[in-house]
């Protein structure tokens, strides 16, 4: 650990269960290997330990966190620790009264996702009829005076409707609109051929998002996250490995990111066996990619190594088979051709429409 | 909008999505909002503590001048720039 490593955000993935089957879900593809194993008391202990480490933000996520019947209790616990708590949800299953209870328990804000501005398309990508309920929940959130973020994951099948998506966000009076291009990992990597947009689509969408950001300044925060497949330099994944974020999975693994448990050779500790402080400060897995000692060339001598930290370890592994190489999204990576090839294929629509693989729990 | 355009009669108020609290690790105030936080210097923290939707900018500047034993004329540009920046980011709102 360096003195600069400071936990700010705990991501509590309360369950991997979810009523939706989104084709770009960021949960690992071996969902069945990580069942819900933490009790209410376990989670409350984890929250306390995270707060003691300095965490100020708590993302209650999943899967679908509403499936935890003790969510009100968890929110109340977070509130007692003065967390800024953010419920990251598909909005189902939820009734207005439960949202009232969550607000009363001290919830700070709500993030609802939609998959498209067109109801049928949103439902198709989510793999379930869900759009109408999502809009209903978004309205409840505003009625109850809770801050609302609308999250929309972007890809080649909805990018051309970005103006309509922004209009819908305005109509819902959301406080924050997160236009997040798909990260091609986990389920999204399996569906990359069908989801990766063309450069023309992205350029056009980026201009529309930029204009909206300026026009809505002070009223709605508009975020447009460029996909790393088109950015030539990798993203600063999680602001650096084990630097600002700690994620706990439904079965209790403490991780530096959403998919670290898919990397081979790293032993991640369980919060049922070890305290968060001990894990954060002393675990070998958290130390593995901290700082610069692990870095290969071209990262090691790169003047951006403290900006992007070599990119995403999971992307490096899932594209090259080695988690300890430069993220191939970087134009300087010796493996960058992997990205160039995927990008080249995305410039034309596929000759035959590609099927989508929906998220599912395989036992 | 430049800071000169801000009316001193404006009554700024922290946006509903924010939470102002002390960060025990740095002993500084931090303004939290979804997924992010803005670590504040002592002046920034003092300004925001007055942003309750009741006090006008003029009143806030006068109060800060007392708190910091400084001159309103000196403080004004710094306060206006800071408030404008947070208004633009939707972290402060003008109370009706």
Any overview of this molecule?
With 363 residues, chain A is α/β, with parallel strands linked by helices. Chain A is 34% helix and 13% strand. Chain A has 14 helices and nine strands. Chain A has helices spanning 40-53, 71-80, 96-104, 119-126, 131-143, 162-171, 186-190, 192-195, 199-215, 276-282, 284-288, 305-308, 313-320, 337-345, and strands at 9-13, 57-61, 84-89, 109-114, 148-154, 176-181, 221-225, 245-248, 254-255. Chain A has a nine-stranded mixed beta sheet with strand order 7-6-5-4-3-2-1-8-9, covered by helices on one side. In chain A, α6 links the parallel β5 and β6 (176-181). In chain A, α1 runs parallel beside α2 (71-80). The mean pLDDT of chain A is 96. By secondary structure, chain B is an alpha+beta fold. Chain B is built from three helices and five strands; from the N terminus they run ββββαααβ. Chain B has helices at residues 42-50, 57-67, 72-88; strands spanning 12-14, 19-23, 28-33, 36-39, 92-94. In chain B, strands 2-3-4 form a three-stranded antiparallel beta sheet, with helices on one face. In chain B, α2 crosses α3. The longest helix of chain B has 17 residues, at 72-88. At the A-B interface, loops of A face β2 and β3 of B.
Draw up the topology in text:
The complex is a heterodimer of chains A (363) and B (96).
Chain A: E1 9-13, H1 40-53, E2 57-61, H2 71-80, E3 84-89, H3 96-104, E4 109-114, H4 119-126, H5 131-143, E5 148-154, H6 162-171, E6 176-181, H7 186-190, H8 192-195, H9 199-215, E7 221-225, E8 245-248, E9 254-255, H10 276-282, H11 284-288, H12 305-308, H13 313-320, H14 337-345
Parallel strand pairs in A: 1-2, 1-8, 2-3, 3-4, 4-5, 5-6, 6-7
Antiparallel strand pairs in A: 8-9
Helix pairs in contact in A: 1-2, 2-3
Chain B: E1 12-14, E2 19-23, E3 28-33, E4 36-39, H1 42-50, H2 57-67, H3 72-88, E5 92-94
Antiparallel strand pairs in B: 1-5, 2-3, 3-4
Helix pairs in contact in B: 2-3
